[in-house]
Amino acid sequence: MTEPLALSLTKICRSFGPVQVLHDVDITLAAGEVHALIGENGAGKSTTMKIMSGYLAPTSGVVALNDAPVSFANSQDAEAQGVVLIHQEFNLAEQLSVEQNIFLGHEKKRGFLLDKAAMQAEALALLARLNCQVDPSARVSDIANADKQMVEIAKALSRNARVLIMDEPTAVLTEREAEVLFVQVERLKAEGVAILFTSHKLDEVKRISDKITILRDGHVVSQGPTSDYNEDQMAEAMVGRDVSSLYPERTVPVGSDIALEVKGLSVAEFAHDISFTLKKGEILGVSGLIGSGRTETMEGLVGLRSSTGEVRLNGEVVHLKSPQQAQKAGVCYLTEDRKSRGLLLTKGMRENLTLQCLPDFTNYLIDQKSEDAALTKAIEDFDIRAPSRDVAVGNLSGGNQQKLLIAKVMLADPDIVIIDEPTRGIDIGTKQQIYEFIHALSGQGKSIIVISSEMQEVIGLADRVLVMRMGRIAGEVSGDDLTEDKIVRLAMGLDVNKEEAA
Amino acid sequence: MAAADTNPKPTMRLDLKVLGPILALVVLVVIGAMMNGNFLSAGNITNVLSRSAFIGIIAVGMTFVITAGGLDLSVGSMAAFIAGLMILVMNGLLPVMGVGWPLVFVGMLTAIVAGTAAGFINGFLITNMRIEAFIVTLGTMGIYRSLVTWLADGGTLSLDFGMRAIIRPIYFDGILGISWPIIVFALVAILGEVVMRRGAFGRHAAAVGSNDQVARYSSVNVNRVRMMTYVGLGVLVGIATIMYVPRLGSASSSTGVLWELEAIAAVIIGGTMLKGGFGRVWGTVIGVLILSLIGNILNLTDGVSPYLNGAVQGVIIILAVILQRDKKAEG
After folding, report:
1. Which spans of this chain does the record mark as coiled coil (chain A) (predicted)?
2. Of A51, A200, A232, B11, which has the fewest Cβ atoms less than 10 A away?
3. Which residue of A has its CA nearest to B221?
């Protein structure tokens, strides 16, 4: 270990296009200190970490190493200066061995040939330093997740990392595996490494961090020694905003008939024993952390994943084994991932719009006239703004893509629509349009499930919210209980000072 | 996309991607006509077209497979195997049914059924067993080639002499001087073009090849679409074989060698994207014609050895892909 490094951000701002995601962020990572960065999804944690590690440049503000301003050309440059980011998704070549991964891109050579003996020895030394038992010649695809995490850290250390940034390092680890990681974090800290990590698990933040920075909407809202906070205070600081007038008022009362009843729905690995009901005209929110099984549950419901359990539509048991069957039964799912699951980016708007119900436009041959008419109507109804009708969909803005995606699904005229992350990555104006549109659907008596990581969004939109945690329904909130605080507590598995509604 | 829209503003942009294959064909025809006076004679044109028909019929099916993001390397040996089977069945039933058209129809039926089954097997392994199309069809390619060699005991399977006389007209005769293979090829091509451009199946195939996840989330039965492209190709291989057997009346281990590569090459020259997502049948037809014209011109002229046929074809294929790449970067 060479001299310790401290990394600091001063007045960092960052914008993506017109949207500013970071506002004057100040963070200092001191050598030999563990710093936790917490905040809701979309609060700006990833952007902050990417700026620290050279993946993104700040729009304004100063990044400094040991008080000397630096500007990383890219992540390799940052690594060369001792700052390494470990991604949440492991960045390892699964088919290569542990040792090959550790030295990937900076292999030791003797002349033209690889110096296997030296690499083997150093890999062993690095793993020993991390107290990790894994065999350097084991294939990465064969080792446990915790070991993969260790390999990532060993890889970082082999590059002489003195500032280690970890994006949700425990998200993929079991509790016991996380314990192993924490022991190593303590060791590295003792060796003078500066560590920053993010986590949604507030108990572990409390346990292993020395300092906390809390982000909300790109602002640092609270910062200080971990000893100053308890878990409730952290949650409070993360949340705590009014729901503005972004959300329309409900004008048509929720129906009384039950449109959908789900009993004991399970999707292997992701969702266990999910039961809920949905009334006609109701907007049901589904909240929970990323990875809590929200998407997988709904994909199981519409037959995109195999699932078990009982589903009733208007009281009748149905078996939705494929999205085709679900669509026929009047249930459609709108994916959160519009770019790789929602739209054909290289095709035009017309092909995309009618893809979901092409048979309706086909009488032996596709009726292009009625396709064009449908597109004209969709452009009008959903206010889709495109430079021309035959523009490739990939060239539309995110908001217009999302509107087209909604138009496409609504063409199938479903009674129940499941919308996963209706407004991810789109501007506030379009958001408002989409909210109004969702309300209009509900007014027409359609039932809607909205999955969202944005707390305000579920609260502002939904009549009732299911909160999921680790593949189960942790609770249900509605009426006066529909607050961010309640949802966050349920999502994080904290005590809810009240009886659970489920 | 180059679809004929009724939109107010017609885009009169001359697209090299559309015109390229047509231009190349025109250039080849001009060169051929200058090199040899016989080139444009009815006899030579009929000859070139008839010979193109086998590959052409198969290539139309291949266009759908590739558009949907697949590949089929087995079609050449599948054709040889089906030819062998067709001959064996007809020879075997000869004592029962006697020489005549009923037996010919039984042979035809055999070819269609065998083609359907072979396509189904490829499709099943690729869609239901989730094995790479390249691997599956590489495997079945070896299997069919070996089976036909085995059926022929290493030699040649010959159709009964009497039967040969009866089925000869399927290749050599026709209507109004146009031979049957050309007519069938034309029908298959027109039908294929209509299905690709205006049919729900063509649109679905392009969607699956473009992004199968999007197709799945859009309630398209991805497996069925994929399966149907392989079954359709199998049926077309059967039809091509029906046209082919009457020509020589025999099948051997060298029947249909490299047909798969010629068919794939024709599809690519025609502007269909090898990685799927976009296909056009008319382009494939032009691709087939370009490939067979090259061979024909080299045969008719003295300047270049016909042994260089493969080299010239190879250059054309690579050029076609380079042109596609340039255009893709724009859109």
Report:
1. none
2. B11
3. A324
Query: Which residue, among A33, A10, A12, has the nearest Cα to A21 in the 3D structure?
Result: A12
pLDDT at A323 over 70: yes
Residue B328 has pLDDT above 70, yes or no: no
Range in A2-16, A180-194, A236-250, A379-393 the model is least confident about: A236-250
Which of B254, B251, B290 is CA-nearest to residue B56? B290
B131-144 pLDDT tens trace: 999 999 999 999 99
Comparing CB atoms, the residue among B1, B207, B219 nearest residue A324 is B219
Query: Smallest Cβ distance to A366: which of B199, B210, B331?
Result: B199
Q: Is A343 on the interface with B (CB under 8 A)?
A: yes
Residues 266-325 of B with CB under 8 A from A: 277-278
Q: Distance between CA atoms of B77 and B146, rounded to whole angstroms? A: 9
Give me the amino acid identity at A277: T
Q: Which of A351, A391, A390 is nearest to A371 (CA)?
A: A351
**Spatial CA neighbour of B77 closest among B227, B244, B238, B258:** B258
Give the C-alpha separation, B27 to B25, whole Å.
5
Tell me the DSSP string of A381-415: HTT---SSTT--GGGS-HHHHHHHHHHHHHTT--S
Q: What CATH number labels B38-330?
A: 1.10.3470
Which of B9, B217, B324 is the best residue to mutate to test the A interface, defined by the most A CB atoms within 10 Å of its own CB?
Answer: B217
Task: Extract the tokens encoding A140.
Answer: 């990465």
Q: Which of A123-137, A174-188, B74-88, B314-328 has the highest mean pLDDT?
A: B74-88
Least reliable range by pLDDT among A283-287, B111-115, B235-239: A283-287
Residue type, B46: T
- Residue B169 one-letter amino acid: P
Most confident of A226-230, B112-116, B317-321: B112-116
Residue A97 per-residue DSSP state: B
Is A304–B7 a contact, with Cβ atoms under 8 angstroms apart? no
Largest CA distance in chain B: 68
CA distance A354 to chain B (A): 9
- Looking at residue A116, its amino acid is K
Tell me the domains of chain A and their CATH numbers.
Answer: 7-238 (3.40.50.300), 244-330+414-497 (3.40.50.300), 338-413 (no CATH)
Label the pairing between strands A109-110 and A113-114.
Answer: antiparallel
Q: What is the mean pLDDT of residues A9-27?
A: 86
Q: How many residues does chain A have?
A: 502
* CA–CA distance, A391 with B291 (Å, rounded to integer): 34
Query: Distance between CA atoms of A336 and A87, rounded to whole angstroms?
Result: 21
The span from the CA of A182 to the CA of A208, in Å, is 7
Residue spans of alpha helices (H) in A161-293: 175-190, 202-208, 231-238
The owner of tokens 């290539």 is B59
Strand pairing class (A316-318; A308-313):
antiparallel
Nearest to A242 by CA among A42, A465, A460, A23: A460
Size of interface A-B (CB pairs under 8 A): 88
Residues A340, B211: C-beta atoms closer than 8 Å: yes
Taking the CA of residue B52 and the nearest CA in chain A, the distance in Å comes to 29
CB A344 within 8 A of CB B331: no
